[in-house]
Amino acid sequence: MSNAWNEEFAVRFRRHEAELRHLYLNLYQGDEQAYSYFTEMLYRAWEARPEGLKRMDRERESRGQWYKGHSLVGMLM
Fold first, then answer.
1. Which of 5, 32, 62, 68 could bond to 10 as cystine, CB 3.0-4.6 Å?
2. How far apart are CA 58 and CA 51, in angstroms?
């Protein structure tokens, strides 16, 4: 984790880092360099995220398990 990260991102990242790190390193055979690149890529994507979406993220996070509601439909291909 970089010390230069925005505090809001850093706090949210720390909350989920142990699980993310475990899953990523398990999937990519413990490649720490790739994990470091991945986390910096996540931060750059967060920085580029429009403020309106960041506000929506904050609001959703305050509702806990918002993603388990019945008002969303998701798909992965």
1. 5
2. 11
Cα separation, 44 vs 39, whole angstroms:
9
Q: Which of 58, 55, 57, 60 is nearest to 71 (CA)?
A: 60
- Give this prediction's pTM: 0.75
Report the distance separating Cα 56 and Cα 35, nearest Å.
Answer: 27
Cα angle at 46 between 36 and 49, to 5 degrees?
Answer: 155
What are the tokens at 69? 């509601």
> Hey, what amino acid is at 39?
T
